[in-house]
Design a protein that fits this description.
The protein contains ten helices and no strands. It is mainly α.
Length: 207
């Protein structure tokens, strides 16, 4: 977690360093974000920075790992929404669509992609974590709905991929091709709701 309440002084300092480093990595790229620059941005000495992170590579890895945990929080929170199939699916798809239209999400995906050759293991971890954290929410929702008899799905993981795929191409792909701040022409809620209706037309149990 990059920031949060109830942190000790050391944890708070670590969070400040990570936030400063993330901003610099996203703006300058890995190569140009030197440790001295990070230290100045975080208002700490270089010695303090190295006490927390022995190298720039170590710092970069932690930034990537903790960022994916932070930015997926709203999607994971959609699991708390209760209701019928449509209500729960809409909660997930709207959160998922919003997630991929956030400039931070697109920027971090772009950064990881740019540095993949240098940090192959980190990139793989990031992408796998994103898939697991996001996909697990969809799979959990679909598994619950199968259990309540509201949808008929043989493999929730496959169905989750289909549902998420209807969102991906108009959100993440758009951002990666047109820029971090590019937004779909249609409202995100409409995109998410249409995906849900298409999904329920295929898998929903007819009353």
């Amino acid at each position: 977690m990059l920031m949060g309440a109830g942190l000790t002084r050391a944890e708070h300092k670590r969070s400040e360093i990570l936030l400063a480093a993330r901003a610099l990595f996203l703006r300058e790229g890995y190569r140009d974000a030197g440790m001295e620059i990070v230290a100045r941005a975080a208002s700490v000495s270089t010695a303090t920075l190295y006490a927390y992170f022995p190298s720039k590579a170590d710092l970069f890895k932690v930034v990537i790992v903790e960022t994916i945990n932070d930015i997926t929080v709203p999607v994971r929170a959609s699991l708390q929404i209760e209701g019928d199939a449509r209500t729960r699916l809409v909660a997930f798809t709207r959160a998922y669509a919003t997630f991929f239209c956030e400039p931070m999400t697109r920027s971090i995906f772009r950064l990881v992609t740019a540095e993949r050759r240098r940090f192959e293991e980190v990139a793989e971890f990031f992408l796998q974590s994103a898939r697991e954290q996001l996909g697990s929410v969809a799979i959990t929702v679909l598994t619950d709905l199968v259990a309540t008899g509201e949808i008929v799905v043989e493999k929730p993981s496959w169905a989750a991929g289909q549902l998420m795929g209807m969102i991906d191409h108009v959100t993440l792909v758009l951002g990666l091709s047109a820029g971090d701040h590019a937004q779909p022409k249609r409202p995100l809620d409409d995109i998410a709701d249409d995906a849900v209706e298409t999904f329920l037309a295929r898998y929903g149990v007819k009353a």
